[in-house]
Amino acid sequence: MLIFMIVTTIVILQRIFELFIAKRNERQMLQLGAYEVGASHYAFMILLHVSFFISLIVEVIVFERTISPLFLPLFIIFLLVQSLRIWCLSSLGMYWNTKIIVLPGAQIVKKGPYAFLKHPNYFVVCCEIIILPIMFQAYFTAIVFTLLNFIMLSIRIPIEEKALMEATNYEYEFNKKIQHHS
């Protein structure tokens, strides 16, 4: 139980710290003329992520879940995923946000993990929502929130991509990558 409390507390504190980074980045971007899109689903996304942690904590404590026999390899994978999360944030710099903030005329970031994947930060979140609960045998939380997250991303990603195509060089960069691989 102690390991669960330590890991969960660290992850929650990390998320809170990231919200401060997102708020700072949002202020910088808005000063440069950026605007937010998809605000109507943002509250649901926050609710999803807060509910994930509540569900995880309740499932582990109330149902007395124990550490998975695969905890060590899962924890190593989780740490690698956290490294990818940090790489995503540092690669995007001021463009990283929990909201969809679009700066008209901006050049799409094509460095770091964004040179290889279209949405590596969403990949990170998907991995975390599966791995963190499984490390503590909270299978209900892992399954339910993986499904809810896929629903959320099926709404969020098209909104984000449409906004980026309308306001930046996103479509050009994406088509260039497709033509380069053809």
UniProtKB/TrEMBL annotation:
<feature type="transmembrane region" description="Helical">
    <location>
        <begin position="42"/>
        <end position="63"/>
    </location>
</feature>
<keyword id="KW-1133">Transmembrane helix</keyword>
<keyword id="KW-0812">Transmembrane</keyword>
<keyword id="KW-0489">Methyltransferase</keyword>
<dbReference type="GO" id="GO:0016020">
    <property type="term" value="C:membrane"/>
</dbReference>
<dbReference type="GO" id="GO:0032259">
    <property type="term" value="P:methylation"/>
</dbReference>
<protein>
    <submittedName>
        <fullName>Methyltransferase</fullName>
    </submittedName>
</protein>
<dbReference type="GO" id="GO:0004671">
    <property type="term" value="F:protein C-terminal S-isoprenylcysteine carboxyl O-methyltransferase activity"/>
</dbReference>
<keyword id="KW-0808">Transferase</keyword>
<dbReference type="InterPro" id="IPR007269">
    <property type="entry name" value="ICMT_MeTrfase"/>
</dbReference>
<feature type="transmembrane region" description="Helical">
    <location>
        <begin position="122"/>
        <end position="155"/>
    </location>
</feature>
<feature type="transmembrane region" description="Helical">
    <location>
        <begin position="70"/>
        <end position="96"/>
    </location>
</feature>
<keyword id="KW-0472">Membrane</keyword>
<dbReference type="Pfam" id="PF04140">
    <property type="entry name" value="ICMT"/>
</dbReference>
